[in-house]
Amino acid sequence: MSAVTTTTAAAPATAQQESRPARRRRRGLSPGRRLPATRLVGPAVLIAVWAAASAAGRLDPGAIPAPWTVLRTAGHLWSAGTLRTDIATSVERAAYGFAIGLTAGVVLALVSGLSRIGEALIDGTVQLNRAIPTLGLIPLFILWLGIGEAFKIAIIAIVVYIPIYLNTHAALSGIDSRFVELAEVQGLSRVQFVRQIVIPGALPGFFVGLRLGVTGSWLGLVVLEQINATSGLGYMMFQAQNYGQSDVILVGLLVYGVFGLVSDSAVRLIERRVLSWRRTLSS
């Protein structure tokens, strides 16, 4: 009897549910799941268009050689040992300048962000330095440091430290003051406050500045290696310009682009691992 009653009661409810219009499923607003190797799609499409235009004869081979011509030139330069030497020299310059700029940017940001006296002494000077075109400092640095490797590394360090300082300092300044009050109530020491509050709060901004600094080191290197250099990718491109070798110039540009993309991807990977506790739109 109870089973019949239950079935009879459920039948009108089911009919009522079927009579109601089906509710439209709400569309998600998030970008969706991260797809693998998405950052390679854009460059792959660009290379495909380049190859198709070259094969169709739409591009002047003297101005823009075909991709296979550039690859053949890169293989020849690599087998001759020229490209390997130039890459090693460029990577060494970029690494030294980046290490100095990274250290200076982080230290200055911490001193300026955690102390009013440090901010008064440092922040205005950095903002003034940011307003001056860094490449415009090249003649002055040549007079100070000579025309050797020192001035190139110094310019790269300046290009790197400015975005790291600005973004890290902004992240430090943006830490909610309630966390500071909570740390004071909990009786945290200065070291504990920096380790538990300051560093987690500043890491997102630091990684943004780090990405900009990595890219900036390669951008500065392109110009610096064309000034009184005897090796490096920029020197190779400058010599190719004198002889009208556009394929060699494209080889240098592609190497710069690959290094920039790889280094930026490496920083992104480290950022996702270190900041895995965050729930953001990109994750």
Task: Provide tags for this entry.
single chain; 283 residues
If you average the pLDDT, what whole number results? 85
Uncertain runs are 1-11
| Rg calculated over all Cα atoms | 28 Å
Distance between the termini: 55 Å
- Helix/strand class: mainly alpha
Largest sheet: none
Continuous helix count: 11
SSE series: HHHHHHHHHHH
Number of separate strands: 0
Overall helicity = over 70%
- Amount of beta strand: under 5%
Shape field: flat
What does it look like?
It is a single chain. The protein is mainly α and 283 residues long. The protein is 75% helix and 0% strand.
Write the layout of secondary structure elements.
Elements: H1 2-19, H2 41-55, H3 67-80, H4 82-114, H5 116-131, H6 138-145, H7 149-173, H8 177-186, H9 190-224, H10 233-242, H11 246-274
How would you briefly describe this protein structure?
The chain has eleven helices and no strands. With about 280 residues, the chain is mostly helical. It has helices at about 1-20, 40-55, 65-80, 80-115, 115-130, 140-145, 150-175, 175-185, 190-225, 235-240, 245-275.
